[in-house]
Design goal:
By secondary structure, the chain is an alpha/beta fold. It has a single domain, classed as NAD(P)-binding Rossmann-like Domain (Rossmann fold, 3-Layer(aba) Sandwich), CATH 3.40.50. It has ten helices and ten strands. The strands form two sheets. An eight-stranded mixed sheet has the order 3-2-1-4-5-8-9-10, with helices on both faces. Strands 6-7 form a two-stranded antiparallel ribbon. The longest helix is centred in the C-terminal third of the chain and has 14 residues. The radius of gyration is 16 Å and the shape is globular.
């Protein structure tokens, strides 16, 4: 696929690199076309780089890996026309660090960032996933032995199937991919991040994840 990854931080670069290794045509996007991290990543991987709009324009699927508090602005810069009809994979968390640790979760109108993005871009097909773990585990779930989970939230069933297929190519087994239902379920996964940060403090290093187990 042609995939646009919005965000040049560690998460964006990690996801973009994995996607390139799987044979996808990837453009990583930032606020400005001359972003040094994006240019360095492109030189190392053979991927493309440009603005948010450049990354989204030719893409079949778009990944939002920007910081949650700036995601809406980043997608506005990408352009509604460039997102129309496309699967939009949202891996961000709306964490407010302005008062230090632990951060608070900015919940727009009592909902989730994913719902806010869907409302702002109603013709995109938003799927929330991968936001409950560190970026190394996102793309290499085998780092953690045994059963552990990645969650899916979204209103569009076909979009979730596409994203589940992408997760499978990362190494996630079908029984590890847990569909939580419609996009309102992203409220729960976004609220997991403060717990994740406390767990990281308690157990460290960051290569751990949440496992949902049932009796019997």
């Amino acid at each position: 696929m042609k995939i646009g990854v919005l965000g040049t931080g560690e998460v964006g670069r990690r996801l973009a690199s994995k996607l390139v290794s799987l044979g996808h045509e990837v453009v990583i996007g930032s606020r400005t076309a001359d972003n040094a991290d994006a240019a360095r990543w492109a030189a190392e991987t053979g991927g493309g780089h440009g603005t948010f709009a450049d990354a989204a324009q030719g893409a079949e699927l778009v990944v939002n890996a920007t910081g949650g508090l700036v995601s809406l602005a980043a997608l506005e810069a990408a352009g509604a026309d460039n997102l129309r009809g496309k699967v939009l994979v949202d891996v961000s968390n709306p964490l407010d660090w302005s008062h230090g640790f632990p951060p608070s979760v900015a919940t727009p109108d009592g909902g989730s960032l994913a719902e806010q993005l869907q409302k702002a871009f109603p013709e995109a097909r938003v799927v929330k996933t991968l936001n409950t773990m560190t970026n190394t585990v996102m793309v290499e779930p085998s780092l953690i032995p045994g059963h552990h989970n990645v969650f899916l939230s979204g209103d569009d069933e076909e979009a979730k199937r596409v994203v589940a297929g992408l997760l499978g190519s990362f190494g996630w087994e079908p029984d590890q991919i847990l569909d939580l239902g419609d996009l309102s379920s992203a409220r729960g996964t976004e609220l997991l991040m403060p717990l994740w940060l406390r767990l990281y403090q308690a157990v460290g290093p960051a290569d751990f994840n949440i496992s949902v187990r049932q009796a019997g």
